[in-house]
Structures are given as structure tokens and as C-alpha cells.
Specification:
By secondary structure, this protein is mainly alpha-helical. The protein has three helices and two strands; from the N terminus they run ββααα. The chain is 48% helix and 10% strand.
């Protein structure tokens, strides 16, 4: 795909060349995997508030996060995981 295009590649049928969908960028897939790992780690943290616990549970069901959800996830990771608050 051209530079700056929001998708990495498109998927087409080999028989009829019909468009089937988009392939996400490798960095998007990596970010999603890393988010899933951090969400799982946060889910094991003790001392989360009811709101934080519910937020983490909700995030675990999503494929993609909004910028606001991503920012809150990063803040929780800094507060709970990076400062040794995970156990």
C-alpha cells in the first residue's frame, strides 16, 4: 500500500480478485498483543478499585482501544505495574 495509507495490505480472492478485507499493520498487531499482555497483568493486581477492575474487564473484551482507553490503560500500568504494585 502507498506510504501513509491506514492499512498494511488488502486481501483479495485468488480466483476472482474480489476484495475481502484489510490486513492490519504489523505495529498495530504488536500493540494489540502488548495491550492484551498488560491487561492480563493488571487483571491479576490486588488493590484495584471497583471502577479500575470493571474497566480492565471491559478492555479485555475489546479488539481495539480508543485513544482515551489507551491513555487510561497506560496510566494504570505506570501506577500498578511499573512501581511494583502488581502483587
Amino acid at each position: 500500500m502507498p506510504e501513509g495509507f491506514p492499512h498494511y495490505a488488502k486481501v483479495v480472492c485468488l480466483l476472482c480478485a474480489r476484495f475481502l478485507g484489510w490486513v492490519p499493520k504489523p505495529e498495530t498487531l504488536e500493540r494489540r498483543r502488548f495491550n492484551a499482555f498488560r491487561i492480563a497483568r493488571l487483571g491479576m493486581c490486588k488493590g484495584l478499585s471497583a471502577y479500575e477492575r470493571r474497566f480492565i474487564e471491559d478492555l479485555s473484551r475489546l479488539k481495539a482501544l480508543s485513544p482515551r482507553q489507551q491513555a487510561l490503560l497506560e496510566r494504570l500500568c505506570k501506577e500498578r505495574l511499573e512501581k511494583g504494585g502488581s502483587q
